[in-house]
Amino acid sequence: MLLQDYLINSSQRHPHKDALFFGGRSVDYHTLAGAAHSIAQWILQFKPTAGFRVGILTDDPLEYSAGYFGILMAGGVVVGLNTQTSDRSLLYTLDDSGANFLIAGKKFLPYIKRIAPSLQAVKAVAVTDGAAPARQGKILWENLTTLLGEPPSGETIPPYRSCCDLAQIIYTSGTTGKPKGVMLRHANLIANTESILQYLHITASDRIMAVLPFFYSYGNSILLTHVAAGASLVVNQNFIYPNVILDQMVEYEVTGFSGVPSTFAILLNRSAIDNYSFPKLRYLTQAGAAMSPALARRLGKVFPGAEIFIMYGQTEASARLAYLSPGDLGTKPGSIGKAIPGVELLLLDKEGKKVAPGEIGEIVARGDNIMSGYWNREEETRKVLRPEGLWTGDLARKDEDGYLYIVSRKSDIIKSGSHRIGPKEIEDVLMEHPAIHEAAVVGDADELLGETIRGCIVLQDGVEINTREIIKHCRKRLPAYKVPHRIEIMDNLPKTATGKIRKADLRLPN
Amino acid sequence: MSELQNTIRSFIFENFLFDAEDDALENDTSFLEKGIIDSTGVLELVEWIEETFEITIEDDELIPENLDSIDLIAEFVGRKQHELA
Known about the structure:
Chain A is an alpha/beta fold. With 85 residues, chain B is mainly alpha-helical. Chain B contains five helices and no strands.
């Protein structure tokens, strides 16, 4: 069993069932599988060597999902790229992953053209509408629209791969440097998909409202579970106008909706949700944080009849590690629940010993869903993949019934909307500004986004500058979601005796 | 171009299109299609419209038909001001 078999099986079982609804269109499983075969055949003509990587940079759900399964059918490794990008981020991810091929939406062509001369490994790019030249420098261009629109020429003969082979690299922000590629095997993603299917009871009759981007692990797990079940995805990843999402939920009679805390905060506070009803909605999932009893009550009111699942996980675990079942939401408020089927979660102290009941320890995870490591980062892999399992960096305690409660994160990762943001990359960009002497970036609690980004800076002696100039500097170099919401100019940054910046002192009390 | 369109245009350029050339955006260009504004950006935009034009935007008015281009915002603000007058 390989990951692409989910699509192949669903297209055989339900060829004319709708797989995707988006932008007023629908695509059935037969068409999606055909498009994936065409992508696979395009890649295979280059006779790539085993283990090759292919980037996907598109916000079109058909291009993304056909690209995803097509790459796997060709025996490649998927690298889903963040569509909120900058030249610098894109160049970094493509070079770091060593991607040989790229599948891209037309909107992203200007980025690709600008960085093309610097790209090290990319040989060929398939882009929508054939908006690109046939050849530019050493890169060959292909018309993605034609590839997706025409039936595949004959059967795809895939190279042999086993479930221990790498299927996907998902980039995730770290606290200490640039984003790291999480390596996931077919077996990792399959184990997680099967486990999620089991506790969410997703079937072919389900329809999910998919608002989370597929290139993050949460969105990726939504794509995989629904394709595996032969269910339908109603995709609108522009969570800009929540009322549009609500209209689509009603129009398509969705049965499930998945979000992060900010998704629900925006729906409850910035939409006309009270004017809607969702009789077919049977469940909601939230990952990213536990849910407060107040929020759970409000959601219960606007989505009566829908079960609420709180989930916990990490990209390093293919997505999911624990969940709180709907029945426990009232009695175990603030909990992330227990390990999902097939996963074991331990609470360990620094020496790797189990902590006593009720004491705080780091969550260490074991299971078939755990990554094989960080791409080309052995040292960082060794820090988290240790004999005991995956050290998550999350500190938690367990109650007498075995329910877990996250106490804090060991890391400085900022969670804003659906993004995990490492402060170091932003600090590096701030430090490139000639007026800045020192910089530290922290998250401030925010009702809608979870956290907003604050850049604390100390200016060079005698320099005066408008903070808008600093934000402008960041805008030019960082994707929009990483740009600080606020810049605070300080006389100096609080430090330890050894000169390390004390970020805890910069954070605002909640 | 009306004064209203000009004011909105300046805000969009200053906050979302730093240093872009003036021809980077037509007044009828969809922000969604061009990927100009994200969900945080819309909240900033709404806050700015409410403060600048002294109007209140209701939750059910947060739709692309009112906010997705310079022209649409100008029409929407014009309508709201007319209602108040």
